[in-house]
Amino acid sequence: MARFHLEQHQDSVHVETVFNAERLQELCQSWQTLDFIAVDTEFDRTNTYFHRLALIQIYDGEEVYLIDPLAFDDISALTDIFKTTSVVKAFHSCSEDLEALYHQYGFELNQVFDTQIAASLDGIGLSVGYGSIVEHFLSLVLDKEHTKTDWLQRPLSQEQKVYAAQDVQYLLPVYYRLRDSLLEKGLFECVIEDVNSIFSAIIQADDYSEAYLKVKGAFRLNQFQLNRLQKLAQWRETLARDNNIPKTFVFRDHHLIEVCQKEKTTISDLLSMGCNRGSIRKYGAELIRQIELADQVSKTEWPEPLQPFHKIPQSKKMFSALKAEVENVSQEHNIPAEALCNRRLIEYYIKMTLGYKGRPNRFWNSWRQSLLEQPFKQAMQEFL
């Protein structure tokens, strides 16, 4: 059934499944004339490094369109509508959607409004789910039965199509309410900038030289061991990406930490650590070779040691001082404190100011800097 009528919750909309390039091109041209559309995707990431896109849903305020990427050789017709800054694209919790669209098709996305981020800035709550936000604004309870369904199966069931359609059908009404509220508060562009920050991080993720910073327990290692971890994490990330498998299918974080701490590692050691036998068979010899290569790197090229935040002198006092500034700015500008600047961002700023190496934080962006940088600098003066 290429087109059906969906009537639920006293709401009525036509739903069309799009299978061919000519129809998609026609729709994309019509969407270019709009001010906004709602977008969602369904994907699978079971046993893969990258998402595999299974469906793209778009609601233009009149009809819902289910675009089936598995039926297309080329969906580049969507390039311009995603790239344009003249049409707002409303998503909910967009990071994985953006990741899937970028990595599989290279789509650049601009002017994306994430209703989850917007809800946090509007004081509704942090990390609010789509069902919860629809219930909050529209008093509707949605069926989440198909959240874990197999979206790559074909044909899609009627129930799957209904579920997919509802994921965008109510997104525009939610967007209208959040847009109006945040425009009044002067925070609309903050949502757009936060999504831009997320997308920039997705694009920049191809540089794996700092992948070791995301390995759990990395702070426990000395510089010699950290140099090993940097080499191993970069190798593991590249291998997982090139073979489109999860990183854990190569070696898990705690196994990388353990081999970095050992003076010398053998295949028998990997077995005794509990590493997966398949991983050892496929990648064990190369892991050992990567350690040997790392040990040949000059000390001058070793990464800086990592300092856990709680071990930084006066960390609690510095954190409390900056937290107080966040509360002041929060009250002054009517922005929930946790949405303005959470614990991780405060710790990031303190580490950055003191010159400690750490994971980058994409949310230390221009709108937050404009509100917080000056009071943060003043608060830090007594500790420098």
Question: What do these coordinates show?
Answer:
With 384 residues, the chain is α/β, with parallel strands linked by helices. It has 3 domains: 3-205, Ribonuclease H-like superfamily/Ribonuclease H (Nucleotidyltransferase, domain 5); 211-301, HRDC domain (DNA polymerase, domain 1); 309-383, HRDC domain (DNA polymerase, domain 1). 50% of the residues lie in helices and 11% in strands. It has helices at 21-31, 79-83, 95-105, 115-121, 130-138, 158-169, 171-185, 188-203, 223-243, 253-261, 267-273, 277-294, 315-333, 337-340, 343-354, 366-380, and strands at residues 3-8, 11-18, 36-44, 52-59, 63-67, 88-91, 112-114. Strands 1-2-5-4-3-6-7 form a 7-stranded mixed beta sheet. Strand 3 and strand 4 (52-59) form a beta hairpin. The longest helix has 21 residues, at 223-243. The relative contact order is 0.09. The mean pLDDT is 94.
Short description:
By secondary structure, the protein is α/β, with parallel strands linked by helices.
